[in-house]
């Protein structure tokens, strides 16, 4: 069993994939959707102004699409995985560009700024496809297995609209009888 197969990690990845698929469905229905999501082991939370019934429909539709083999809906181009990948890659690229100037390591040289900007720009260009790859293979799963939608609810006292989607794993007990 690998790290991604640990039940808790697999559950978070499935919820994360369902969150993305739900946002895709909502985006199809609302042209200028502005929404942020956060997934955990219990489900996911959406931050935005969408009706609870609309989120319930979108979540059910998203789960249906994933169950029918449309795993690509689990990957979203505005995921935090891409943001984190971009931040890490551009920061490291700028750091290495600046540190490669070995003229005088005791003081900062302003002449390294253009190469740091160039390195960070190139890193940002490559970060998008790398972030999508990381998302597809590590941070989300487009295969919901036995994931079920337990509840969609609204947090009424929040300063912004918070919609909680609670997911659970349904377990099927199989009995095997052997005839001898």
CA gyration radius, whole angstroms: 21 Å
Q: Order of strands side by side in the largest beta sheet?
A: 1-2-4-3
- Class by SSE composition: alpha+beta
Strand percentage, roughly?
15-25%
* Helix percentage range: 40-55%
In angstroms, what separates the terminal alpha carbons? 33 Å
Q: Find the CATH topology of the largest domain.
A: Threonyl-tRNA Synthetase, Chain A, domain 2
The ordered string of helix (H) and strand (E) elements is HEEHHHEE
What is the domain tally? Answer: 2
Distinct helical segment count: 4
The CATH class of the largest domain is Alpha Beta
Mean pLDDT level:
87
What features would you describe in this structure?
The structure is a single chain. With 180 residues, the chain is an alpha+beta fold. Helix content is 48%, strand content 16%. It has four helices and four strands; from the N terminus they run αββαααββ. It has helices at 7-29, 52-67, 80-99, 113-139, and strands at residues 35-40, 43-48, 147-155, 162-169. The radius of gyration is 21 Å and the shape is elongated. The two termini are 33 Å apart.
């Amino acid at each position: 069993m690998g790290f991604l197969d640990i039940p808790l990690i697999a559950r978070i990845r499935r919820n994360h994939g369902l969150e993305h698929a739900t946002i895709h469905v909502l985006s199809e229905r609302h042209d200028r959707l502005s929404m942020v999501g956060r997934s955990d082991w219990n489900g996911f939370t959406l931050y935005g102004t969408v009706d609870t019934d609309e989120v319930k429909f979108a979540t059910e539709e998203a789960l249906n699409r994933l169950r029918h083999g449309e795993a690509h809906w689990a990957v979203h181009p505005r995921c935090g995985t891409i943001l984190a990948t971009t931040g890490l890659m551009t920061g490291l690229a700028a750091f290495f560009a600046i540190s490669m100037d070995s003229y005088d390591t005791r003081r900062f040289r302003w002449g390294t700024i253009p190469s740091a900007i160039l390195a960070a720009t190139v890193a940002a260009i490559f970060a998008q496809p790398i972030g999508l790859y990381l998302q597809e293979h590590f941070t989300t799963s487009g295969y919901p297995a036995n994931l079920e939608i337990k509840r969609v609810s609204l947090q009424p006292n929040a300063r912004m609209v918070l919609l909680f989607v609670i997911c659970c794993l349904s377990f099927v007990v199989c009995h095997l009888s052997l005839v001898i």
